[in-house]
Structure formats: C-alpha cells, structure tokens
Amino acid sequence: MRQKSHEMKAIETFWVLGHKVTNYETTGDYDFSVGETPAHTQGPPPHMHNKLSETFLITEGEMEFMLNGDVKIAKPGDLIDLPPKTVHTFSNKTDKTCKWVNIHSPKGFRGFFEFVGISVDKQNAQKDSVSESVIKTVIEKAADFDMYLKL
To answer: Does domain 14-149 sit in CATH 2.60.120.10?
Structure first.
C-alpha cells in the first residue's frame, strides 16, 4: 500500500542571526527550511555539526561559503552538500538578497532556529536577531543543537 503524501506547510518564519528563515513541517527524518539573506549580511560563526548533514540549494542571488577553510561562491542552482564535521559558514557579500533552501538530516536542527530566532511579526526582528544577547545565547546553547562553534 502506498503512503499518502502530505503538503508541506510553513510553521513559522524567524529572523535568525540576520537571515530570514521559514521552517516547514516534514514527515521524513529531515528539517526543511527556506531562507533569505539580505545584501551584505554576515553568516553564523564558523561551525560544524557532529551528526547532522546539511544541504543548501541557492535559488536566487549569490552566497559565499567557507567550507573547511576553502571559499566557494554559490549561484542559483548550486547545491552545497555538507557531511558531518564540515566546518562552514556563509555570507552574502553582494548588493542583492540571496534566497536558499536548507535541509538538515536527521531531523532536529529546526529547534535551533526556533530557539534563537526572532519572529518576523516582532518590530525590529532583523536587528534584534543579531543583538548581543542573541549572540551570547548562540554561543552558550549552539552545542545543544549539534552546532559546534569554531571561534
């Protein structure tokens, strides 16, 4: 018997460290998010995941990725596939917004976005998402979500 498919529904949108992230509910063992990185926005601190694999698909604009010390410019249609233990970060150094799809497997990293993210409904959410208190929370709690900072 074939399993019935379900439409993925957006749960909530957050500003996370200057990036707009919309999480979707999935039935599989992965987290699925769609993101937007405004022009001239720095990414998260360099980090790695011990158990999670992470994938980015760039759908619009450009993103600069640092992967184990090497720099790659990703453009629309480019897929960045990160196995566990890959030290990485990303930033948008262009004058245009970059849009992307992000998948973490196995499921669980979505909780990081929900924990440190600021709801888009709140005034000044983007600015607040890079506040000193949020950065402190990221430093203190990232490892709880299999995110190990390499500062």
So the answer is: yes
- 107, 79, 146, 13 alpha-carbon torsion, rounded to 10°: -60
Rounded Cα gap, residues 107 and 23, in angstroms? 12
Convert the pLDDT of each residue in 73-118 to its tens digit: 999 999 999 999 999 999 999 999 999 999 999 999 999 999 999 9
Give the separation between CA 125 and CA 110, rounded to whole angstroms. 18
State both tokens at 70.
């090497």
The C-alpha atoms of residue 110 and residue 145 are separated, in whole angstroms, by: 9
State CA 61 to chain mean position distance: 16
The pTM of the full predicted model, rounded to 2 decimals, is: 0.91
